[in-house]
Design goal:
4 helices; mainly alpha; membrane; transmembrane helix
């Protein structure tokens, strides 16, 4: 019964799926990075956390760049 509401929401507003897909991708990245680096490179849990620094820097950099691009794209004429 609860899935009917979700199905109707997706049918009426398909872009509502996008945040869920991003959340799923982020979840997979955060869950698999620690295991991957521990298995492949033999990182201990403490050192394995350093693998997330690249993700953090990348997410922060993309947010800053996106903000700057959107500022130029959405400029109000005469403002």
């Amino acid at each position: 019964m609860g899935l009917h509401r979700y199905r109707d929401c997706v049918r009426v507003d398909p872009p509502s799926l996008i945040p869920g897909q991003y959340g799923g991708i982020y979840y997979l990245m955060f869950v698999t990075f620690a295991a991957f680096f521990a298995e492949t490179y033999g990182f201990s849990p403490g050192i394995g956390g350093l693998a997330f620094l690249g993700l953090g820097v990348g997410f922060l950099g993309s947010h800053v760049c996106r903000s700057q691009v959107l500022r130029h794209v959405i400029q109000i004429p005469g403002g």
